[in-house]
């Protein structure tokens, strides 16, 4: 592992532990050159290798895109980064793949909305407004009414 502070590639693992139901290994490391400590995470890569975009293009799956969308939705909400990572893992576990290990952005978006609805209603509405491309305030209000009826 390369030290993020000095770039040296000699470090020692100080502590290892699993998190998120054993799906991730968190390792606390110390650089043997500069002595700085840093954390690394080891996780299983999801099966999906490609995401099918709305216009039909295919691009490699990137969990960071899901993370960015979630972070925008939960901005200024009382939700920890650990919780965001757990939500991403739940989404990745539920991804429905086709025979070519592809998944559509629509399927990913629906899973994100499903998890956000459980996590935080404000974040859910924020994400839904972008994902569903609301054009009017009435569409926004209708989504909120639906959310209120469900609760």
How would you explain this protein's 3D organization?
The chain has 151 residues and is α+β, with helices and mostly antiparallel strands. It folds into two domains: 1-44; 45-150, no CATH class. Helices cover 43% and strands 22% of the residues. The chain contains five helices and six strands. The chain has helices spanning 63-73, 81-94, 105-119, 121-131, 137-150; strands at residues 11-19, 24-31, 37-43, 50-52, 58-60, 102-104. The strands form two sheets. It has a three-stranded antiparallel sheet, with no helix packed on it. A three-stranded mixed sheet has the order 5-4-6. A hairpin with a 5-residue loop joins strand 4 and strand 5. Helix 2 packs across helix 3. The radius of gyration is 19 Å and the shape is globular. The N and C termini lie far apart (47 Å). The mean pLDDT is 88.
Q: DSSP strand (E) fraction? A: 15-25%
Instruction: Note the gap between the termini.
Output: 47 Å
Percent range of helical residues: 40-55%
Average pLDDT number = 88
What class do helices, strands and sheet pairing give?
Answer: alpha+beta
Largest sheet entry: 3 strands, antiparallel
Order of strands in the sheet with most strands? 1-2-3
How many domains comprise the coordinates? 2
N to C succession of SSEs: EEEEEHHEHHH
Rounded to an integer in angstroms, the radius of gyration calculated over CA atoms is 19 Å
Show unreliable segments: none
Give the strand tally: 6
Shape: globular
Query: How many individual helices?
Result: 5
Family: Belongs to the NrdR family.
Domain ATP-cone: 49-139
Cofactor: Zn(2+)
Zinc finger (unnamed): 3-34
